[in-house]
UniProtKB/TrEMBL annotation:
Domain N-acetyltransferase: 17-170
Gene Ontology molecular-function annotations: acyltransferase activity, transferring groups other than amino-acyl groups
Coiled coil: none
Organism: Bifidobacterium erythrocebi
Keywords: Acyltransferase, Transferase
Protein name, entry field: GNAT family N-acetyltransferase
Superkingdom of the organism of origin: Bacteria
Stored InterPro entries: Acyl_CoA_acyltransferase, Bact_Acetyltransf, GNAT_dom
């Protein structure tokens, strides 16, 4: 974590929102917000939804970033791999979600931009994402943030036969 610039550790956003690392005591809330985000307007398997609540387990190898509103309520989150546990050629981020109370404020885009800044700070040039086919709102967000679909990389099968879509973005 010490290799991240100070401005990435805490940021004030428009509309009174703030982006910061979650406290361990907030992991249950983070899981609830992510489950709400992924089950409102999108279909996910029960297995996937259970995984959204395993934030404490995921926090062992990933940083848990949250956006809170002016009242300090968590309304969005994303996980980025900790570099000491992540040794892939391309960086990634996981389970980006905005709860219903945070929608319509550009918070999804703010989380993507933050994850891209984290990847650059760790020295990565390319970010690779995997997404379920039914997560069309997420795909629109990724395209808007400069990602491109990579059908040639779509080899991951999860949740009883579901093939994930691949997206990449490279910084030059």
């Amino acid at each position: 974590m010490s290799s991240l610039p100070k401005e990435l550790l805490h940021a004030k956003l428009q509309g009174g929102f703030e982006l910061r690392l979650a406290e361990p005591s907030e992991y249950g809330t983070v899981g609830n917000v992510l489950a709400e985000a992924f089950t409102n307007g999108c279909w996910v398997t029960e297995e996937y939804e259970r995984g959204l609540h395993r934030i404490a387990e995921r926090a062992k190898t990933s940083d848990v970033w949250v956006i809170v509103n002016a009242d300090g309520v968590i309304v969005a989150a994303v996980l980025t791999p900790k570099p000491e546990f992540y040794h892939e050629e391309n960086y990634t981020f996981n389970v980006l979600g905005v709860g219903t109370a945070g929608r319509g404020h550009g918070l999804g885009k703010a989380l993507v931009r933050h994850a891209l800044a984290v990847s650059r700070a760790y020295g990565y040039k390319t970010v690779e994402l995997h997404s379920s086919p039914q997560m069309t709102h997420a795909h629109q967000l990724y395209y808007a943030c400069g990602f491109h679909r990579r059908p040639d990389w779509e080899t991951i099968i999860v949740d009883r036969g579901q093939r994930l879509l691949s997206f990449t973005r490279t910084e030059y």
